[in-house]
Amino acid sequence: MAQYTRASGFVGLITLQNPPVNALSAVVRQAIVDTVKIALSDPKVKSVVICGQNGNFCGGADIKEFGGEMTGPPLIPMIHAIEAANKPMVAAIEGNALGGGLELALGCHYRIAHSKARLGLPEVTLGLLPAAGGSQRLPRLIGVPDALDLITTGRIVTAAEALRLGIVDQVTEHNTVDAAVKFALSVAGQPLDARRISTFPCPRPPDSDALFEEAMRKVRGSARGAMAPVACVQAVRAAATLPYERGMEREKELMATLFTSGQARALQYVFFAQRAVGRWSMPSGAGWDTSKPRPVNKAAVIGLGTMGRGITVALAQTGLSVVAIETQEKQLMEAKQAVTSMLERGAKRRGAAPALDRISYSRNIQAVADVDLVIEAVFEDMALKLEVFRQLSAFCKPGTLLCTNTSALDVDELARGTPNPELVVGMHFFAPAHVMKLLEVVYGKRSSPQAVATAMQLGKKMGKASVAVGNCRGFVGNRMLRLYVEQAFFLLEEGATPELVDGALEEFGFPMGVFRMSDLSGLDVGWRTRKAAGQAQPGEASGQSARIRNGSRYSPIGDLVCEQGRFGQKTGRGWYQYDKPGSRVARSDPWLHSFLEQYRARHGLVARSIDRQEVLERCLYALVNEGFRILEDGIAAGPEDIDVIYVFGYGWPGHRGGPMFYASTVGLPKVLERLEHYHQAHPDVPDLQPCGLLRRLVASGSPPVHRWREVIKKLHSQL
Ligand SMILES: C[C@H](O)[C@H](C)C(=O)SCCNC(=O)CCNC(=O)[C@H](O)C(C)(C)COP(=O)([O-])OP(=O)([O-])OC[C@H]1O[C@@H](n2cnc3c(N)ncnc32)[C@H](O)[C@@H]1OP(=O)([O-])[O-]
Question: Which residues does the UniProt record annotate as the domain 3-hydroxyacyl-CoA dehydrogenase NAD binding (predicted)?
């Protein structure tokens, strides 16, 4: 819908009305076409202002329409008609002007933005490109380098930066529509040819071929197989090398290759999955719409190691007051310095003032007396955490939420150590905590829905993709990861190399394969977990028993490599070798290859040729299978929860949609058949046995992923 009114007697005012973001649905597009016609034929009207209802200009094309047949007037001619208008068309931009919304504004002759407005062409994040003239008009307006940056990254800019770039003509602190109407009156009757961006020559940067080759090299390097960033470079290149009409044809061609691609569907699934996880629920039935969060005005962080420092920064950047507590003087001073420089760097990037004054530091745990929520981030040791929770329960005011950043310990056991277990939840951040977008909010058996609601709301405030999950060993992310790593170890036993396994996973789209990632995070981290679980046993046992734990196959390869002091980048040796400790460039290590041959010989294992397909199937299907078990156990409410966790916390390529979405694109019957095949080949690996829920979904005709929640709900209601 779009409403037409007159403002100040001579200005036609077109207001987009499609809450919550005024997306350009078919109905809205038709209404724009109609109201623009009315305004241009209204003799009283000298100029026209286009704005959005509810302080939001326009969130772009209606993504919900992409899955179906496109109806209604197309965007491109609609915007052309606005640009060709014989009366000044002024866009009054409040809130968001994104994608087709910014393209609509670029079709106008002038753009007035509120200082809090956000502008951008994020289509690439949806597996698309700006296909309503954005890839042709933006380079003509702001130049190729800045347009390339915005279009290939999908970066959203503030009004201040948009003014500096030349995207908008004016920024106002006051009512934007009033300012736009006043401006529209001031330009009434002025010539417009010089304001029609599509007629602008596109400034050709010196040596533009080199610039585009460099841009292409860069996006291919970071895209990890994603098609859209590459198409975005090609579209902007068309703007720099072709006349506008031919550039628009090229834009259309490129968009056609993307629009129906699996990658675009996967990224749009991730977009809606991110919104779906915000509508969280617990097995009790309580959820986002029935649980009111408690207000959090002041928070505390206990333990200022790497995680504690990142969490302190993430909290302070929300505008909250934070008490940062570390009992050791030296660590406290070091942490203060680290937090200060992280805040200053972040503020510089955002062009804002660092929130240094929001943080107070203390060595005394009693400083938590007036906070609303505490996040504990001390060393991963149950006895230590229980002691901290005991003290917190003594010093915190009634009702203070006690959150733990543990990544592996039992949240219920921690809660049992306090007088109010209903106030205890896990807030599992990912390193670096002020950068990584994922937050697992872990509810225990006694956690109150209000505690979960509060943690989820705080997560959203920190800009996190927050996912509510049940308490179990490894929660969701790490629980699935164990199966993925285990298969990688087994593949080494059977003849693969770290290079082969990592090559297959990186070709799939992961930023790093399992062994390069292990070298980065430190092999000793996993070793400590395996030792704590009683799996890793010292020394080199030989024979079958060395490779069996609790009746199942176990690979001691990782333990044996650690016993050599090879912990990865930090020791300069791990699965790969590095020039020196701390360096990041991995090189194949002949020592590791001969170690693998000797290991196989000692255990009577014969290496066989393994291809990339088998690597993918074993590592990814084992992880997916555990995902189905997690859904079966009710630890995660739906596939979207698992997929958001893996895309925003474990480097799963967004253009593959996440593990559960990926399984649905491969086809559940295929995943089931392959798991049965590998379980038959490896009967000593019970985790390869297909999960009952997977069998059930296949038996019920493999419904599309967005319908799995129903099947799961029915399954749980029958239990
Ligand atoms: C031709 C052209 O070149 C191409 C092809 C395009 O234009 S492609 C499209 C390009 N546009 C985008 O990429 C912008 C996408 N949107 C956002 O980034 C954010 O939404 C937001 C604008 C910054 C607001 O954030 P928010 O945190 O305030 O609210 P929300 O929870 O996110 O959103 C509130 C509700 O609105 C829904 N929604 C948001 N944007 C939408 C859109 N463009 N289409 C359809 N629904 C949308 C969203 O699913 C949610 O629904 P529900 O969950 O309540 O049912």
Answer: 298-471
